[in-house]
Amino acid sequence: IRHTNSCYLTMVAVDSEGRPARVPPLTLETPLEKLRFEKAALRKTLRKQAEEAERQTQVDHSNSL
């Protein structure tokens, strides 16, 4: 058996009205938990950069028409 892909989910806690609710922060205890948290933060940063680059590309294309 070999690892072929991964999936990352974002879950949001909601209150009785269905609005996002605050939850206690994560308690990272093991080196693996800390590493995974750091890697998730990096993925988030890279995703935001890619989204911004895509927005800029769309703006650039709309200005050239």
Automatic annotation (TrEMBL):
Which Gene3D superfamilies does the entry link to?
Hotdog Thioesterase
The lineage's top-level taxon is Bacteria
Protein name in the entry: Acyl-CoA thioesterase
Q: What is the lineage of its organism?
A: Bacteria, Pseudomonadati, Pseudomonadota, Gammaproteobacteria, Oceanospirillales
